[in-house]
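hey so u asked for the seq, here:
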Amino acid sequence: MTAPGLTLLKLLTYPILEILLLTLLCGTLSPFVVTYRMAFFSDAIAHSAFTGVALGLFLGLDPLATTVVFGILMGILVIFLRKRTGAAYDTIIGVVFAFSVSVGIFLVSSRANLFTNFHSFLYGDVLLVGKKDVLTMGALTLAVLIFVFRFFDELALTGVDEDYAATRVKHLDLLKYSFSFLLALVVTLSIRSVGILLVSALVILPAASARLVAPSLRSMFFLSILFSLTSGCAGTLLSLKTNASTGASVVVTACVLFAACAALRTRQDGRS
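ran it, structure tokens below
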């Protein structure tokens, strides 16, 4: 390999590892997000990052740190309000979404001169990822995999029938808080790579595609991971070929997979 080729490979090592870890994470959590009907939750957390970034810039703090903290707080707030009020998830998420975005817009509009580089958080740039980011994502991936495989049956049962799960699963509230905490952490830490506008798609699309063709929740889980990793690899290659945004390329690939699964499902239903 030539010297320029080696240099390019070295530059792309961390971004590629970041995308692989990110898509593995999203594929792992995606089935539970879909079965819990929490698709809007990931979108709300992603958009709460808008306020987290704004707070960081407004207060002169690290925007990534304030984004992570604010996103986690919003995720925990959703579960807390759900338990306290008994209202539907979509209602509570809508309220939290409106609150977080309105605060962000208020901060941005009041001090517009501070937010000249805000677009980088909206769209993300995986090429800015370094060794520290990859190590952080690797540690988070390990934590999520341990959590999901340890509590897979409990998480699955909760998605099928939450009322029945309450009679069978010890510390169900703690389990839901833990899941929301990890999901919020994944979403907020992914923003640096794929941006606020696209991160929720990576959490929803893998399981949405797998659900169309999988005969069971367990097979849906593994197909979700496979589809997510496939979209990550193919999207990265597409990005390198076209010089387009990596995050957008991954999401476009995931959408193509969804369309293929939908077509396959339609064909199968037509035969039955």
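The domain at 3-196 is CATH 1.10.3470.10 (ABC transporter involved in vitamin B12 uptake, BtuC). The chain has a mean pLDDT of 84.
lmk if thats what u needed
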